[in-house]
């Protein structure tokens, strides 16, 4: 169910074979990202393709020169394979695609895992206030409908750094007042809440939602293709190397300029978890395909596809990994997108591919780019999914561990 072997990518800004449009922003499993030039999508005529369209067909991988790379066991054939999938849409800025498992539950892969229980060994942080989100409430609100898909009706713990503050909820565009909360911890039984969102009104400090259970989070391997964008690649590698949940970063250089870049060479020499692979320019799909092969060295790791200039906060990535770990089936998690020029402009949210036109489009109620400035959860009813979601951009797509190699090519949402 999908477009295995073909990568669709659209962003405003500069586009060429092997690199995406300029992307800079914050993306997470439950809220958007920012892209310069993306606001142009809002003015695209109906039926016309958006600016800077990019369709890259998967290519073979000749002339690959790996650096700091052990011999690779490649699949017997590079092939495009249709993958049967079950799609579960959500209403809160994350789409999930269930991937068929051929090896049991994710935990059966063993190897290293990342303990999501940071403050308390018997609990797991679901989300904390993300100070990089805009509007800020987008990074604080708890998307009940989405979390319930993996939590069921279990209770969660809401922790307030400062109080008192009011707990509010929203359902179908109506605000509900759930009471005044003091600073400290509060049990929230999800079985008693049919809200789409919960949030703390006028919170003075951090708001944290935890699950009173210990959940092991998979380590993350990040794959970053790049083409003659040395400074972007350097900054992106540095960002991910600083994240606790990330254990490996693979940069696929398709322009051949990074080996001679002094600062990148120093970063490579001082960070054993950073790997540089140089190959011919095979476009976005060719870069991600190479990254898949490298990432397959650690089948216990989740794999994040990221553009060289897409800025993903550590909080966002940790939420994505946590959601994935809680899912009963291997699940792909994608990120919505915001404009860097207008940080509150939501450009892409839940999307799907129209099989008739072979084109992506919204699978929620949005119609074009949407400015969230001055809005709150009660205004976000347009985010409710309508039908299946089966597409996400490669500015931020997280594959569950041991999944990428199952198709040998960039999956449908690349």
UniProtKB/TrEMBL annotation:
Residues 84-114 are annotated as: Disordered. Transmembrane segments: none annotated. Pfam families: Glyco_tranf_2_3 (PF13641). Residues 88-104 have a biased composition (Polar residues). This is Glycosyltransferase 2-like domain-containing protein.
């Amino acid at each position: 169910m999908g477009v295995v072997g073909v990568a669709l990518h659209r962003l405003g800004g500069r586009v060429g074979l092997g690199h995406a449009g300029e992307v800079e922003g914050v993306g997470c499993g439950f809220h958007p990202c920012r892209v310069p030039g993306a606001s142009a999508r809002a003015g695209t005529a109906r039926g016309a393709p958006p600016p800077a369209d990019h369709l890259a067909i998967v290519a073979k991988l000749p002339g690959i020169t790996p650096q700091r790379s052990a011999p690779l066991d490649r699949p017997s054939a590079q092939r495009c394979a249709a993958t049967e999938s079950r799609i579960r849409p959500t209403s809160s800025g994350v789409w999930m695609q269930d991937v068929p498992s051929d090896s049991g539950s994710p935990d059966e892969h063993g190897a290293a895992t990342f303990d999501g229980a940071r403050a308390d060994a018997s609990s797991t942080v679901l989300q904390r206030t993300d100070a990089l989100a805009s509007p800020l409430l987008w990074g604080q609100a708890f998307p009940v409908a989405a979390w319930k898909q993996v939590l069921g009706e279990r209770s969660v713990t809401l922790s307030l750094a400062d109080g008192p503050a009011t707990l509010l909820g929203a359902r179908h565009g109506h605000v509900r007042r759930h009471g005044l909360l003091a600073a400290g911890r509060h049990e929230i039984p999800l079985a008693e809440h049919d809200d789409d969102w919960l949030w703390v009104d006028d919170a003075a400090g951090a708001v944290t939602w935890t699950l009173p259970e210990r959940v092991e989070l998979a380590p993350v391997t990040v794959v970053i293709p790049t083409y003659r964008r040395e400074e972007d690649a350097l900054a992106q590698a540095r960002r991910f190397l600083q994240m606790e949940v990330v254990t490996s970063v693979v940069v696929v250089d398709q322009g051949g300029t990074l080996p001679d870049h002094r600062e990148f060479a120093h970063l490579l020499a001082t960070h054993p978890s950073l790997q540089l692979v140089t190959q011919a320019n095979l476009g976005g799909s060719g870069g991600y395909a190479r990254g898949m092969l490298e990432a397959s060295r650690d089948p216990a790791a989740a794999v994040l596809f990221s553009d060289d200039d897409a800025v993903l906060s550590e909080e966002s990535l940790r939420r994505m990994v946590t959601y994935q770990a809680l899912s009963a089936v291997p699940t792909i998690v994608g990120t919505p997108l915001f404009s860097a020029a207008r940080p509150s402009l939501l450009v892409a949210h839940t999307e799907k591919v129209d099989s008739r036109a072979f084109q992506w489009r919204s699978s929620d109620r949005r119609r074009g780019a949407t400015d969230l400035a001055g809005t709150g959860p009660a205004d976000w009813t347009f985010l409710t999914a309508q039908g299946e979601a089966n597409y996400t951009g490669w500015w931020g797509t997280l594959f569950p561990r041991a999944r990428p190699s199952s198709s040998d090519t960039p999956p449908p949402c690349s």
